Amino acid sequence: MNYRALGNTGLKVSEVSFGTWAIGGSWGKTSDEEALNSLERAIGEGVNFFDTADVYGDGHSEELLAKATKGKEDKIHIATKFCRAGDIHDPETYTYDRVAAYCEASLKRLNREALDLYQIHCPPIEILKDGQVFEVLDKLQQEGKIRNYGVSVETVEEGLLCLQNLNVKALQVIFNIFRQKPLESLLPEAKKNGVGILVRLPLASGLLTGKFTKDHVFEEDDHRNFNEHGAAFNVGETFAGLGFAKGVELADQLGWIAEGRKSMASAALRWILDQEEVSCIIPGFKNEKQVLQNLEALDERPFTGKELKALTAFYEEQVKSSIRGPY
């Protein structure tokens, strides 16, 4: 395993880390036994950082992480998120009393005394512009409830806004071959400010594995079924905002990235890790096989200059105009 600095937090995190949305819910059927075995395998392979949220399975992902990391709390770092258990548009959701209650609930489920990284979970830009939530997080940090805080954002504009607050230590962003916009300004600015970058949706909800055909049907409780067009939350969180059919069509054009590499998925992850500003990727998983497949990115060869130019052109000419929603 390779480790990278999470900005200037002082934490060193495994460059392939994992998100736990899939094991909590909204990705089809899950098994706690399989999830715990997968977490144990990831930790055994050197993974020391996991991302979760209080709404993943209504806190179930946090409870699973507590079981998996018992006795390893000083070695395994956890980031969790808040605000989506309430009305994200209501300023009351971000008051001290409300955020402190969210924090305490997460600490209890995680069985921890302090959170390594506490993130605002994709709030509206108006909340970020108001800025009072940052004062609340400063207070929780002073009380020792959280060690660092950051923001999970939907757009580059939101990310750049967050960088104006010197106490924001990490940004969680959607970034992959289909979503290259952060390369233009956000990643360089984050690096300049010593802010860590966590990359979610590195495989664009599975599109960049190349395994789907246009006639694939997702389970009813899988967000790839019910949120393809943004019915439940931001459309960009599902298939990078492309829509399934368009995403499959574009993924079919990317098969060449697997040439000389283990798979299209590991190649897509390698492309992200080739960006020096990235602290870690946090792909999801539901079983040990997926954990190991994601870890294959560590051993993939970097992309050549010619390949990188081809992927930039592909994004600009084929992908960019098809992304729906702000990004």
From TrEMBL:
Gene3D superfamilies: NADP-dependent oxidoreductase domain (3.20.20.100). It comes from the Bacteria. InterPro entries: AKR, AKR2_Oxidoreductase, NAD(P)_OxRdtase_dom_sf, NADP_OxRdtase_dom. Residues 16-315 form the NADP-dependent oxidoreductase domain. CDD domains: AKR_AKR11C1 (cd19086). One of its GO terms (molecular function) is oxidoreductase activity. PANTHER family: D-THREO-ALDOSE 1-DEHYDROGENASE (PTHR43312), NADP-DEPENDENT OXIDOREDUCTASE DOMAIN-CONTAINING PROTEIN (PTHR43312:SF1). This is Aryl-alcohol dehydrogenase-like predicted oxidoreductase. It comes from Mesobacillus foraminis.
